[in-house]
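Two entries, shown back to back:
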Amino acid sequence: MIINRYIIRTIHLGTFMALLALVGLGLFFLFVSELRNLGEGTYGLTQIIKFVVLSLPGKVVEFMPLAVLLGSIISLGALASNSEIIAMQASGVSLAKLISPVIQAAVILAVLSFLLADWVVPDSESYARSVKNLALEKTSALLVREGVWTKDESSVLHIGQLLPNGIARDIEIFELDEQGKILSALKAVRAIPLTEGWELHQVEKSIINDKEMMTVSYDQMLYEGKLSLRLLEVLMIEPRQMSSNDLRAYLNFLDENKLEGRVERMIFWQKMFAPLTIIVMCLLALPFVLGSQRQGDTGQRLLIGILLGLAFVVVEQLVIQLGTQFDGNALLIALLPNITFLGIAIYVLAKKQLLGSGRGLFFRRAQA
């Protein structure tokens, strides 16, 4: 339907413009704040620009809900100001038919945002943080796409991934002699930090000498290394930077080992409901533009959008903090802000529909 495509394109264009402004401001302030660390360690202008560029996908995901709200209010408000929405309704487009393309536009944006958050942001955010902190810490660690290489006394370690709380996955430890020759090679599926060293799990250790190589397997073993705790903190991935699959696997690991995971579980459900947030924001914009035909309403609509976006952030943070402290159901707590604002949107839309029906009945009686 031509009208549907027109509304979808209008919402996407408005969202893109709002996203461009919000992300641009966010990156500008990020760049300015990073200039305070300029010259510290090896953190130069090149590293700052690299850090800011790598932060771009994360900023897009962060600002997407607010951009959808503002973009929808502005773009749909422009249609209302030009009497295009009134013309659509006069030609037989009901409120339900008007909501349909709005939801379609929101779903497309929600899917794109989720894919970006799940496939791009985890790598870009982790790499950006590592680039910055490794430069500031002046470490000798070598960061690569598949993890990090570092030296610990006479051993060389490859750490595939550092999870929250210092838990590591896919560890390789190569023990060297004074001439740099490999004496043994050890592989472990995961490692749990202790007061001193790591507790390695599912270990295969290969002992190498001039005549043969012998491989021994262990369920668990202790690695008494002297890794820099500051280095591990620098390289450690945060739950919000993990993909949904990695976060789910990490939650399963916490459950299997009877470890606390309330915060991580809350973050997981926030990620799952992030697409719903975008749809709710788009629907929330619709009631505030219906029936408005004045060009001067643009500033008022923009103010309403900003206030609604701030209100959503405050409610979401408040509910999640309270839920985390009192150990509530993470799924319901993460869903509650969306349900609340969806209820507000439905209520205002229903009220607009009743007012529209009443006005139509009044005009029909006046004509009779």
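entry 2 starts here
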Amino acid sequence: MSQTRSRSVVLRGSQQPRVSLAPPSVSNDFEDAVDLAAGYGLVADEWQEDVLEGWLGRSPAGKWAAPRCGLAVPRQNGKNGCLEIRELFGMVILGEKFLHTAHEVKTARKAFLRLCGFFENERKFPELAAMVKEIRKTNGQEAIVLDNGGSVEFVARSKGSGRGFTVDVLVCDESQELTDEQLAALLPTISSAPLGNPQLILTGTPPSPNMGGEVFTRMRTAGVKGTDNRLCWKEWSLVPGDDLNDRANWAKVNPSLGGRLTVEAIIDERSAMDDATFGRERGGIWEDEDANGSAIPATAWADRLDADSEIVGSPVFALDVSPMMTHSAILFAGHRADGDVHGEILHREGQPPGELDYRLGTDWVVPAMIDLKTRVPGLRVSIIKGSQAETLVPELEDAGIPVDRVAVSEFAAACGLVFKLATTGGLWHIGQPQLTAAVAATKWRDVGEGAQAWGRKKSTSDITPFIAFTLAIHQAQSAKYDVLASFY
């Protein structure tokens, strides 16, 4: 018998991820979750227990130590089992409300039907069936609602699919297809989590070149670099250059190999797929993001530094919020006496010299804008339409600050303008380290019809200040406003 079909040696998948990041915790619910699921026939693999341990650790305050969680593992290994255990425990024991989203309707419905199996079998699981208040099976409105307040609703993602939901846990399966626009609609669903302990869970595989995937890729970058101390990231993956024909490598990145996944199935996939597809789908290989340089050459940006640069006349303001709402930035721009354009991160009166309006979170933004309004008559601010900055619009408008929404297509033109001015002249900055670091991290992305813009997915770290800088420069060049102020 050939080696391919030999039963004498069974390859077993590695139960340990190549990349593992989890915040420290003082207690953990994962054993309770695993035991509950096992009691109903859903027995976790060792690797699934490891993932759940990362998701269900608690801080000294009793909150989730990891309010942001990500899992990247090749297909057919059982990531949905992790989600089912998390949802079953959260609904039944904690009374949590879940919104489970997927890229496709059929995927969301499959997840619904799997979870339904625990609550519709009155004979096998009478105690779970007794908890059911309602099960909705209408296509596109699937939900399980329990009498303890726990629930899970299933939707396919769209631009507005999160509107009207308020939940404790947001699950985004197939996150390789999750776009910034979709996340902007979904993330506010956990902003006012009923139990005051929200969690975001993203699961999926490395995105292909024709997918969005910028949200998942950014989370992955933070997980690999360890830059987010409230993130749990688990990743089974090979790296570019690993031998795709080495079965030992298959075992490294497919934890369910030798169980629900067979060597024979992978052999058939290897024969059918090209190297890039097989490496991504079965090897978990992510695109090498560090192979390309910054969108703005470092020498060009250095040449645009003028420590004494300042604007005269009318500044304009721009605001950007990162897709995970971890960073926000307020920038302003305007023309200098020589007619060139200047932009910088806002430094408000009374702040220490190094303290700029590029900070963590979003709570500080509206108070900062209200403070700015006292010194800038007619203040208005620009944001990118559909970005996370949209979540702050109601508060800004309530404070009497008009908001101008710039379409993505117009922002692409803004990126082209800033690139031209930075590389050929006419643009200046004062060398703020936060802005320079964002410029160095920025990569291009295609936005359709041959247009390009700064790509958060491909960028190597947070580029929020450069997004706002670009928007402010563009608005200043368009001369749309007549706002007079002096705030240096």
